[in-house]
Amino acid sequence: MIRTLLPALPILLGVATVLTISMGLRQSLGLFLPPLTRDLSIAVADFTVAIAIQNLAWGFLQPIAGALATRLGFRPLMMAGAILYVGGLAMLATAQGLFGVVVGAGLMIGLSLACTGSAIALAVASRAVPASVRSTVLGMVTAAGSLGSVLAAPMGQLLSDGYGWRVGVVSFLVLALGMVPAAWFAGRVDRIPLPPRAAGTLGETSMKAALATAMSNNSFLIMAAAYFVCGMQLVFLTTHLPAYLALCGMDPMLSAQALTAIAVFNVAGSLFFGWAGSRWSQQTLLGAIYTSRSIILAFYFILPPTPLGTLVFASLMGFLWMGVGPLMAGAVAAMFGLRWQAMIQGLAFMSHQLGSFVGAFGGGVIFDALGSYDLAWKLGVGLGLVAGILQLIFAAPRRPPPPPRLDPALSAG
């Protein structure tokens, strides 16, 4: 496998760097919420509006970014996204009010994530390697995307505490500059010709025809709908688990420990499901993840929370967290081919982001109305079980990958 990946190594290192920085910074922006809101005299809800706009912009723009990658190439798209990220952080660092926060942390970073996030990164990695090792490589790249916050979060917190939140944001800006050369190296994937079209996948067809094909494919529609539930469950947890634990009288430090456990086990899960996707049906594995998550959620919320139980729950959920990424990317590549993968995967990711919005906002609405999270978690469990079972029923059989090949164009590039 190492010899097979050697020619693609600069591309894979470049795209993994882009992903780990873009995701790590994005996941750590919440560190600046308390000092930023105090300094600018804005409400906490105002900051969350910026994050909501970021998620919606990312989701709705992802299919467009995927289509542009096919038309223009991955290199200009990712480099433009990296520059936008730097610009968004610069606007946030100099913000004097709500407008700068919403445009910088919300709109500009949301647009940048559509060009540098997981959908584009996994499409680049898919094209860079042979189909026989693709799923394993996608798991590695996804795992890399979980590591950025390990550097960004402590650095941002340390500088923010010592020198103010604006200096902390500037430190993120310096890290974001590293995405520009990384995107350049990852963009070498544009030199690789597409492999011969496999039977049943899309070839030299128009964007309109590719969209029509995807939207008429029952397996893909079920997969995209299940991805909505995936986003809803995960963002409900990251948004509302700390509040739930506080309501139950748990130590506030337990929330941070639980989120850390999720991040650590997420790396292991991404690697495992990347490996598993090369051996079993990726859609069947997706169904198993959604079903398992829902069962674990139900057991956790039915029982009274304890510190040990919470950490075990977080570890199990972390293992099942981002393993969906390589499986989704691999399934889309197998179903439709590589030419329009980024765009079609972007459609599914848009569904995921809508689910994320519902999980965060809907959970808050239910709690405000009922004073409890009971209905919210029960809806999450019920919809997750339905999504998982339907995904298992409509799973397409796994197509055996062709034998490994070394692309002369990649070696020469």
Description:
- The structure is a single chain.
- With 413 residues, the chain is mostly helical.
- It has two domains: 1-191, MFS general substrate transporter like domains (Growth Hormone, Chain: A, Up-down Bundle); 204-396, MFS general substrate transporter like domains (Growth Hormone, Chain: A).
- 79% of the residues lie in helices and 0% in strands.
- The chain has 20 helices and no strands.
- Helix 5 runs antiparallel to helix 6 and helix 18 packs antiparallel against helix 19.
- It is globular and about 60 Å long.
- 53% of the residues are buried.
- Mean pLDDT is 83; it is low at 400-413.
Helix and strand topology:
Layout (H helix, E strand, L loop, with lengths): L1 H4 L3 H20 L4 H8 L3 H29 L1 H20 L4 H19 L1 H11 L2 H14 L3 H16 L1 H13 L1 H8 L20 H9 L2 H30 L5 H24 L5 H21 L4 H13 L4 H13 L4 H30 L3 H20 L14 H5 L1
Helix pairs in contact: 2-6, 2-7, 2-9, 2-11, 4-5, 4-6, 4-18, 5-6, 5-10, 5-11, 6-7, 7-8, 7-17, 7-18, 8-14, 8-17, 9-10, 13-14, 13-15, 13-18, 13-19, 14-16, 15-16, 15-17, 15-19, 18-19
Unreliable stretches, pLDDT < 50, 5 or more residues? 400-413
CATH class of the largest domain: Mainly Alpha
Output the radius of gyration. 21 Å
| Secondary structure: number of strands | 0
Q: What is the terminal-to-terminal distance?
A: 20 Å
Main beta sheet: none
Q: How many structural domains?
A: 2
Element pattern in H and E: HHHHHHHHHHHHHHHHHHHH
The CATH topology of the largest domain is Growth Hormone, Chain: A
Instruction: Work out the helicity level.
Output: over 70%
Note the total helix count: 20
**CATH structural architecture of the largest domain:** Up-down Bundle
